[in-house]
Amino acid sequence: MEKNILIKTQGLVKKYPVGGGHFIALKGIDLTVNAGEFVGLVGPSGSGKTTLLNIIGALDAPSEGKVEVLGKDLASLTGAQAAKHRSEFLGFIFQTYNLLPVYTVFENVEFPLLLLGKTRAERKDMVMQALEWVGIADKTNSRPKMLSGGESQRVAIARAMVKEPKLVLADEPTANLDAKNSHHILKTMEKLNQELGTTFMFATHDDKVISYLKRKVTLVDGGIQSDETS
Asked: Do 73 and 62 contact (CB within 8 A), yes or no?
């Protein structure tokens, strides 16, 4: 894989068994994404964007075709190697936040660093830096139930960014937020993309998200309909 290419898919097909046949969620996807892009997979529900995002994130496997992320052929990775790959290089942001309710904000953001074996001092510095990035350092000891939706999503972004991953995958990250919080979240991610060079890939049909994208890959019925750069 060329040096600046972060993601490359070739002939990607995903089939799900339905009754006596198959539902084809992805139909021969060829896609290349370079390091540092702020790109979105857009399209209506059922177009295949979340399926493609999950395959790129090594959370799912294609039925046919090839996926390379950060120079690694994902099909060649064992389950343990795929988990290590996600832990070291990828960050995930979901529409439901996926925060652990019994843990504080600090502990939620710290969790990915425990998997990387960072020291206590390293973890503290990295967590506080991530919370400052998203403007929520004053909520360190709060628990998720005490947070608003916008605050919860900022914690989720801090958790995704704390290890400074090469790639962040965001699935409908503003779906549960009002317009004001959505724009705050998107401006935060745009700033992290510009300042840290982190590649962001979204799956979304939210016009607010789409307005921030530098590249828009439109999926319809499991295929790429258009690929536009602004």
From this structure: no
